[in-house]
Amino acid sequence: MPSTTPKPPIYQLKITLLGIEPAILRRIQVPSTLLLCCLHDAFQAVMGWTDSHLHQFEKGGKYWGVPEHHGYDDDIKVVDERKVPVAKVLLAEGDSLVYIYDFDDNWRHEVAPGEDRGFGCPDKADLPCR
Q: Is the pTM of the predicted complex or chain greater than 0.85?
């Protein structure tokens, strides 16, 4: 009998552009195993952007992005986003991180589990998060 690999939890994420009224936001569902580089690609798609600017993620004094593109002094260490899944950064309910897109304009987005959908789906990942 073939073994079944459990599906990873699905995260319902709310992406909110900070400092703008009325709020500009998107909600997306992604597997917890999605790498941060792919999360960036998903943000580009849902925002309708063309990946024309540099970006990075930050949380608690740590930074994730493309190390060779970070543009900061050598005293800031940027972890390679191609090696880190979402689940290693968003660890629990109420957790969040910041996604920065376009270093000149400094568009900062809060990325957090959606308030109305919960952090992850149970083992029945074929069902939508509730």
A: no
